[in-house]
Design a protein that fits this description.
single chain; 8 helices; mainly alpha
Length: 207
């Protein structure tokens, strides 16, 4: 498969095509997060941290996501990362839709439904990731932290991402976040899923 160009493209280029995809992708991302939290079988590393903080405070899950996102963006400053409109909307849309999703989805207790909701959440998360990344309107806060640290330290993106996610997973688990089979399944599946969906949704600039 030919390499896919994910370099930033000005928001003024094809906004009627890209902005709805961005917002829709971010909304689906937030809803997929809600599905995984309601499955109760384990979360991705960042959401383990978010849930751990939620359990120790009176804040909603979405509020914790928003606060954590802003905190990560502060770390962009010494890394000289520049946010795009996609970065800003990521903080707002995901934090709102994850709480809306959690409000309409009941906590699952039957094993069969837990598995269905978990797998559905992971697949939707892969599609949502491809959709918003494919608009090329700016990385999410956590993606920007990863690429910024990689650029500043000279370490590979894979190594930096692994280090960050191990750290947030450990802290989240200590705070009471849910770690389980879903955590492992997400780690194994999210990359291949996003890669599979990306060619279908990525914006390609016209020659």
């Amino acid at each position: 498969m030919a390499s896919i160009d994910l370099g930033p493209v000005s928001v003024a280029v094809s906004p009627l095509r890209r902005l709805p995809q961005l917002v829709g992708g971010l909304a689906l991302y937030g809803f997929s997060m809600a599905m995984m939290t309601r499955a109760g079988l384990g979360l991705d590393p960042w959401d383990v941290l978010h849930e751990g903080i939620m359990k120790r405070t009176s804040l909603t899950f979405g509020t914790v996501v928003a606060i954590a996102s802003v905190g990560v963006l502060v770390l962009w400053i010494p890394l000289r990362q520049r946010p795009g409109i996609g970065t800003v909307l990521n903080v707002i849309v995901v934090s709102v839709t994850v709480d809306l999703g959690r409000a309409v989805l009941p906590q699952q207790t039957e094993p069969a439904w837990q598995i269905v909701v978990l797998i559905g959440g992971i697949v939707f998360n892969g599609l949502a990731t491809a959709a918003y990344v494919g608009t090329r309107l700016g990385p999410g806060p956590r993606d920007g932290l990863m690429t910024g640290l990689s650029a500043r330290t000279g370490r590979s993106v894979r190594l930096v991402r692994t280090g960050i996610e191990v750290a947030v997973l450990a802290v989240g688990w200590l705070l009471g976040g849910t770690v389980g089979v879903g955590t492992v399944l997400y780690a194994l599946a999210i990359g291949p899923l996003a890669q599979a969906f990306l060619p279908l949704v990525v914006y390609r600039a016209r020659s």
